[in-house]
Specification:
The chain has seven helices and eleven strands. The strands form two sheets. Strands 1, 2, 6, 7, 8, 9, 10 and 11 form an eight-stranded antiparallel β-sheet that branches. Strands 3-4-5 form a three-stranded antiparallel β-sheet, with helices on one face. By secondary structure, it is α+β, with helices and mostly antiparallel strands. It has a domain at 23-30 and 41-59 and 114-244: Beta-Lactamase (2-Layer Sandwich), CATH 3.30.450. It starts with 22 loop residues before the first strand and ends in an 11-residue tail after the last strand. It is globular. Mean pLDDT is 91; it is low at 246-252. It has helices at residues 37-50, 52-55, 63-77, 105-110, 142-145, 150-153, 162-174, and strands spanning 23-24, 56-58, 84-85, 89-91, 97-99, 116-123, 126-133, 181-184, 187-189, 214-224, 231-241.
């Protein structure tokens, strides 16, 4: 069992917030490079090379949205001291050089940043998952959720009832370009594995907070793309040992 861990989580992961628990996000705080960058990226690149169809998907019609989120991310990384972003390639903090392939924008992005990226586009009255690079699924499977609307994606989450579903749909409808949002979650695990896909009919048995050896927390960001109007749902995964769980200041 390989451990890829951070030493801390930069916000209070265990602080309670009413669902859906969103707060404003400064765009400069969207993409994070933390102390697990090199190890997480090594795993991400292996998964994208060896299991590309398990960790990435993109509908043909959503290529423009995927290219737009790639461009937005590269623009942010160009301001980051640890990246060197050129017109053809990106020099990453761990020494790798990643070629920019605009025909495969999500797979390209998945080799550069720690965040998983999900594209949500409005179809009729709901947002649908039309593309993703998902290397670190927390007990769900991309192929099973691809091209599903929000309520279908959240099967079999018990807390995601009709009331929460309507509130989340209003949230996705209401997010504005240039005014991103973020939320967090926290779950206890006995296994620190990051690639943990599960099918809906084989849900994970919950690990009690009193005995969990690892805390897994996702910083989830919600951004509107100004050109294609797609919504980006990004996921930065933190995994820390129980003894390292800290009550840090909230993210800026």
């Amino acid at each position: 069992m390989t451990e890829i861990l951070q030493t801390c989580i930069p916000y209070d992961a265990l602080a309670a917030r009413p669902l859906p628990g969103v707060a404003p996000l400064n765009l400069e705080d969207w993409l994070i490079v933390d102390d697990a960058y090199a190890a997480q990226m090594s795993l991400r690149c292996s998964l994208l090379s060896e299991k590309p169809n398990l960790v990435s998907a993109l509908s043909e019609a959503s290529l423009p949205a995927a290219q737009e989120v790639l461009d937005m991310a590269l623009d942010q990384l160009a301001r980051h001291v640890d990246f060197d972003v050129g017109p053809q390639a990106v020099h990453c903090p761990d020494g790798r050089v990643v070629a920019i392939d605009r025909a495969q924008p999500l797979r390209t992005l998945g080799q550069i940043i720690q965040e998983d990226i999900c594209l949500m586009e409005k179809v009729d009255d709901e947002h649908v998952l039309t593309g993703a690079v998902l290397c670190f699924p927390a007990s769900w499977t991309l192929a099973e959720k691809f091209m599903r609307p929000l309520i279908g994606i959240h099967v079999p989450v018990a807390e995601y009832d009709d009331n929460i579903a309507k509130r989340v749909q209003r949230l996705f409808d209401g997010v504005r370009a240039g005014r991103p949002l973020w939320r967090k979650n926290a779950l206890w695990y006995d296994d620190p594995s990051l690639f943990t896909p599960r099918l809906e009919d084989a849900p994970r048995d919950p690990v009690p907070a009193q005995t969990g050896a690892y805390l897994r927390s996702e910083k989830q960001c919600i951004l509107r793309l100004p050109k294609t109007d797609a919504v980006v749902f990004s996921i930065h995964t933190f995994m820390v040992r129980r003894e390292q769980v800290m009550h840090a200041p909230a993210a800026r």
